[in-house]
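cron nightly-structures :: item 1 of 1
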Amino acid sequence: MSIRLAAFALPRPRRLPLRQMYEVARQRRELAQLDDAILADLGLSRHDAQREAARPFWDLSGTPCA
């Protein structure tokens, strides 16, 4: 008889790969640099873009911070 340890394991905290952290940070920096016309085409205001760009790279919740 064997015991399956996986059934008793606690979930590990989610860790982001270094590449994903870098990519999120890069995209947010680029978003902050877009001009108002491009942001309007995307349906975003300057305030929305700045707020998103200010989020930390590990915050991937999908919702902008308040």
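cron nightly-structures :: done
The two ends are 53 Å apart (CA to CA).
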